[in-house]
Amino acid sequence: MDDTGDWTELHRGRTVLVTGAGAGLGATLARHYAGAGARVMVNNRHRREGEPSAEKVARSLRAEGWDATADLHAIDAPDAAAGIRSALEERYGGLDTLVLNAGINGTASRIASMDPAAFAQVMAVNFTANVALVQALLPLLERSAAGRILFVSSSAGLHGLYGRAHYAASKGAMNAFALTLAAELRRRGIGVNLLLPYADTAMTEDVGAAVMAHFAADKVAPAALWLTSPQCQATGEMWIAGGGHFRRAMTVETQGTTVPAFGPRDGGAIAAAAADLDGLRPFTDGEAAFRDVLAAIDRG
C-alpha cells in the first residue's frame, strides 16, 4: 500500500464503514482508511464456507496494528441496515464516514432478453439496499462533527453501458439519490459525494489484464480519502478516478432558446440553438434548473 502518512491528520480517530470490502476496491479502501488511522468496519456478505472475506481483511488490518472489525451482513438482507447500525454503535459508538461500495454488475444481457428477476436483483443490491443504509445510519452521521457519505458509483450511470442496462440503471438511480441527499443535507454539515472509479477488480476481469494493469485500486483511494475528509467541504460532486487520473463529472444544461411557436419546419434550427454548448451550466438540483428555464422564458 502507498504511504498514507499524510492522510492521518485527516482521518485519525474517525470511524469508517466500508461496504463490500471483502476484496477488490472495497478492501483497498478499508486498508487505506485503516492506514490513515481510522477505525474501520469491514462489511461483506459471507458466501462460502471457511473464513469470511470481511474477517480476513479485518484480521490482516489488525495484524498491522490497526483498528478493524468485520461485519458479515448482506446489505440487501431485510435486517441488514438495522443490524449494521447496531454493530457500529456497539463496537465504536458512532460513525463518521459511510462508504457505500458494495455492488454487483449482474449477467450481461441485452434489454430485450433481460430477465426481470435479474434486473430486480441488481437494483436491490446496488440501489435499494444503499437507500436503507443511508436512512438507518444518518442519525449516527448527524452526531459526528464532520459526517461524510461516499457513494461508489460508475460512469455507466452517466452514459449507459451496452449489455448491462440493469447495472447502468442502478448506478444512475444511485447518482440521482446521492445528489438529492447532498442537496437535503447541504446545510447540516454532512458532505455527500460520488466516486466513479476505474479499478482492476473482479468486476472488470473481462476487460483484459493488459488494459486494467493501468488501473490499480490503490490509485483510486486518494480521491475517496479526500472526499470523505473533514477538510473537504465539497458536496454533491461526482469524481471519476482511475490510473492516477482524476476528473469531475456533472450534469449540465445549455442556455437553450425560447421561440414563440414551434412549427413543423423549425425543428432543425431550434435543435441547433438548443444544442449550442456556449454557456453550459450545472445546477444544484432540479428545482434550480426549473427556475432557470422559467427565467429564460420571462426574458423571452
Describe this structure as you would to a colleague.
- With 300 residues, the chain is of the alpha/beta class.
- The chain has eleven helices and ten strands.
- The chain has helices at residues 8-11, 24-35, 53-63, 80-91, 116-143, 156-159, 165-185, 209-212, 221-227, 267-274, 286-299; strands spanning 15-18, 39-43, 68-71, 97-100, 148-152, 191-197, 238-242, 245-249, 252-253, 281-282.
- It has an eight-stranded mixed sheet, sandwiched between helices. It has a two-stranded antiparallel sheet with strand order 9-10.
- Helix 4 (80-91) runs parallel beside helix 5 (116-143).
- The longest helix is centred in the middle third of the chain and has 28 residues, at 116-143.
Keywords, separated by commas or semicolons:
8-stranded mixed β-sheet, Rossmann fold, about 300 residues, alpha/beta, 11 helices
CATH topology of the largest domain: Rossmann fold
Average residue-wise pLDDT: 93
Computed CA radius of gyration, to the nearest angstrom: 21 Å
Number of self-contained structural domains: 2
Percent of residues in helices: 40-55%
H/E series, N to C? HEHEHEHEHEHHEHHEEEHEH
Kindly summarize this structure in a few lines.
42% of the residues lie in helices and 14% in strands. It is α/β, with parallel strands linked by helices.
Q: Any chance you could write out the topology, listing elements then pairs?
A:
Layout: H1 8-11, E1 15-18, H2 24-35, E2 39-43, H3 53-63, E3 68-71, H4 80-91, E4 97-100, H5 116-143, E5 148-152, H6 156-159, H7 165-185, E6 191-197, H8 209-212, H9 221-227, E7 238-242, E8 245-249, E9 252-253, H10 267-274, E10 281-282, H11 286-299
Parallel strand pairs: 1-2, 1-4, 2-3, 4-5, 5-6, 6-7
Antiparallel strand pairs: 7-8, 9-10
